[in-house]
Design brief:
Layout lengths: L26 H17 L8 E2 L1 H8 L3 H13 L3 E4 L3 E4 L4 H22 L5 H14 L4 H13 L10 H11 L1 H14 L3 H14 L3 H20 L3 H5 L1
Antiparallel strand pairs: 1-3, 2-3
């Protein structure tokens, strides 16, 4: 469970990159592969909010022509990760504190529902893995914590196919990733432990198949992060 989300973080450019090659399936497939690679780089912090993304650099880095690079940028614009300005260029999207507050309030309401949908399909093996991730987070550094936390939460949402909800939750996670990273540095420096307690409470509720309690714990977990982010507006200036 969660192997995709638990992947290690990439190093900041100019680390060697896997070439993205056009194949007989054409520019569309190459554009999707560039989008996947660039999305991972943005989420792993290789690009900061507001940083310019130069098409020629991406084309060289990923071994692709300009056409799939442009397609990739349009894909990530639709996901809210990239901002395109006509005849000017592309930048990694920024969000304000007010926008982040709105996104977290949406998450408070929809993630517990998505968890409820998936809860009956979480096996004993899945719960053991969640418990392992929760324990590993207690000793993790910032980047390890972010990868483990993402694996912990998103792996609970992938078992039941949904037409809207799953994609919406993942997009909200992706759009706030930079700000979780900055906030995680803050709570690590402060020695804050409540996040770990909440993870273990959530594991216990899932183990009991107690959907009401799991929803309550998850909503409170998201709400606490939202309130703490509001106490640190510098996160949105410095991220």
């Amino acid at each position: 469970m969660a192997s995709r989300e638990a992947r290690g973080v990439n190093e900041r450019m100019p680390a060697p990159a896997r070439a993205v090659r056009s194949t007989p399936d054409g520019h569309g497939a190459a554009g999707l592969r560039v989008a996947d690679a660039l999305r991972d780089a943005i989420l792993d912090g290789a690009f900061a909010p507001g940083e310019r993304i130069r098409q020629e650099v991406l084309a060289q880095r990923y071994g692709a022509s300009r056409v799939p690079v442009r397609e990739a940028l349009r894909t990530l614009e639709a996901e809210g990760l990239v901002t395109l300005v006509a005849n000017t260029g592309a930048w990694v999207s920024r969000i304000s504190l007010a926008e982040c507050e709105e996104m977290y309030q949406i998450r408070e309401r929809i993630e517990p529902l998505l968890l409820r949908f998936n809860l009956p399909l979480l096996t004993g093996e899945d719960v053991a893995e969640l418990d392992r991730l929760a324990t590993a987070m207690e000793a993790a550094d910032v980047e390890e914590f972010l990868a483990l936390d993402r694996a912990f939460h998103l792996s609970c949402y992938d078992l039941v196919p949904t037409s809207v909800l799953g994609d919406m939750v993942r997009q909200l996670w992706n759009r706030t990733q930079h700000y979780r990273r900055a906030f995680t540095r803050v709570f690590h420096a402060d020695g804050e432990r409540s996040v770990h307690h909440e993870h273990h409470l959530l594991v216990a509720a899932i183990r009991r198949q107690d959907a009401d309690e799991a929803e309550r714990v998850l909503a409170g977990h998201i709400r606490r992060t939202r309130l703490e982010l509001a106490r640190h507006p510098e996160v949105f200036a410095d991220a």
